[in-house]
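Exercise 7. Predict the structure of MarR family transcriptional regulator from Clostridium senegalense.
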Amino acid sequence: MNDIIINKFKEIYEKEELLGKLVFKGEYENYGISEIHCIDLIGKIENPNVTKIAKGMNMTRGAISKISKKLINAKLIETYKKPNNDKEIYFKLTDLGKKLYKHHETKHKEWEERNDVFFKNVSEKEQEVVANFLIKFNNYLEEIIKSKGDI
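Solution. The predicted structure, encoded as tokens:
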């Protein structure tokens, strides 16, 4: 039974990824999920820097540095420093980055509305069972992550 559950998680992930690619087809299809989520985080958090973004995305600082360089080259983000701190580098969205950020927000709302159609046909009891299962599984994975050390 757990093989079926794990395979269904994998299927859902793959289908969500495919739907994401279909939604962003065209203007933004050259950007991966990590780049889009990095832009989303830069648009949402205060004083975004490599450390904050890495923590928010559960990725290494090295991975975020690589993503940020790609986004800088694509003119989606730019760096800045605060006058009182010449060491720390922060990121902000360019006009093009803001456009992608807003587009992502719109698509995210559409994604929620799309999935609400499905959940309206699932009883509260079924949703409660699934939610409790996912919380337990998520906590289990979190404990494994903690035991292995932070990213």
